[in-house]
Amino acid sequence: MIASVLPTYNRAPLAFTKGEGAWLTEADGSRYLDLGAGIAVNVLGHANPELVAALTAQAGRLWHVSNLYRIPEQERLADMLVEATFADTVFFTNSGTEAAELAIKMARKYWYDRGEPNRTGILTFEGSFHGRSTGAIAASGAEKMVKGFGPLMPGFVHLPWGNMEAVAAAIGPDTAAILIEPVQGEGGIRPLPDADLRALRRLCDDSGVLLILDEVQCGMGRTGRLFAHEWAGITPDIMMVAKGLGGGFPLGAVLATEAAASGMTAGTHGSTYGGNPLGCAVGARVMEIVADPAFLAEVNRKAALLRQRLEGLVAAHPDVLEGVRGQGLMLGLKCKVAPADLVKAGYAEHVLTVAAADNVLRLLPPLNISDAEIAEAVDRLDRAAGRLRG
Q1: 367 φ, ψ to 5°?
Q2: CA spacing 20 to 30 A to 256: which of 4, 6, 38, 343?
Q3: Assign residue 210 a region: left if phi > 0, alpha if psi is -120 to 50, beta otherwise?
């Protein structure tokens, strides 16, 4: 008999009833150090008092009115995002998947309005992940996501990761946009080199193609800058954001330049819940904290500390681990064993991690994790790796 909850997840045998900072607690009081942060969502930890205060204050005033009316909290958060980024305008969604759908629509409408309705092709990359909708899985093209769900949305060209020559060769008169994650998350914590990101920007500038960045997982301070593309000194035309933006409250957004968004006029897109007062009140408080240069400097300091300790962990377990990759507090341990096995070994040591492709274990802790918690996390990972020896 099928479960009342549709069985699309292989869930761990854990159920948490409370969270505080970097810790999760089960009903029996067992505490786990969380290095997954809800898959890069809880950027300020669990039950952060400042986010709780923002949410409860707004909850006592107004939850939902729909986008039939102006929403002051939405306008405030949009202004904050515009001021802090390349963007001229913002559309709020509930998730990264919804952001992907709008980014695709926006790029195609851009060319339609310029008299080139056949310019619909979007170049994407092996190992990418842009969500689970039919459009998003078509963009990824991975067999594990698309098998059984055809026919898929047409128009996507899938290219090898990091091959700029293949990108240049694939751009043609029907190409509307390039869609890429500056750091692949699900694909195995693979950062695109800054030089390659700059090369993509040049290719787009030379051809008129739009550059869409998916910063759903790598954005919101995760790499030590507010957004990962800032390290390369470039800007996109369209950017997808979610996960950390709401700090745990479902909230996403598409940021765009005025030119890229020019086709999205009244009636071309909408969302019942997107940009609701509750989500935007929390998102604004997240932005106030995470966009602070002093906070980001601390993320970089902690990232260096964690990486140094992880390098020592790799050296101590050469039969289990082979390297560290990633940027900021978006790090991966390249494994010589199945990462799922190391995740399970971590359960026994009460530390939570997330598996990814390319035999990588993801470490995505809250951005405000303490130095002591970093040391404790690596000690627990050390014991977990020790369980897999031999």
Answers
A1: -70, -20
A2: 38
A3: beta
Query: Cα(166)–Cα(386) distance, rounded to whole angstroms?
Result: 42
The one-letter amino acid code at 290 reads V
Q: With bands split at pLDDT 50, 70 and 90, how would you rate the model's confidence at 203?
A: very high
Architecture of domain 16-29+293-367+376-387: Alpha-Beta Complex (3.90)
Task: Please work out, in degrees rounded to the nearest 5, the angle formed at the alpha carbon of residue 183 by the alpha carbons of 182 and 185.
Answer: 135
Rounded to an integer, what is the distance from CA 118 to the centroid of its chain? 30
Q: How far apart are the first and last CA of the chain?
A: 39
What would the two tokens of residue 124 be? Answer: 């994407």
d(CA 216, CA 97): 9
* Residue 45, number of CB atoms within 10 A of its CB: 24
Alpha-carbon dihedral sign for residues 358, 331, 162, 136: positive
**What does the alpha-carbon distance between residue 161 and residue 362 come to, in Å, rounded to a whole number?**
19
Given the candidates 3.40.109.10, 3.40.640.10, 3.40.50.1820, 3.40.50.12780, the CATH classification of the domain at 50-290 is 3.40.640.10
Checking if the pLDDT of 371 tops 90, the result is: yes
Answer yes or no: are the C-beta atoms of 364 and 354 closer than 8 Å. yes
pTM: 0.97
CA distance 14 to 158: 37
**Measured torsion, CA atoms of residues 104, 255, 164, 122, in degrees rounded to the nearest 10:** 10
For residue 237, report the phi and psi dihedrals to the nearest 5 degrees. -95, -35
Question: Of 65, 17, 16, 24, nearest to 42 (Cα)?
Answer: 24
Please write the tens of the pLDDT for every residue from 380-389: 999 999 999 7
Place of tokens 């009081």: 29
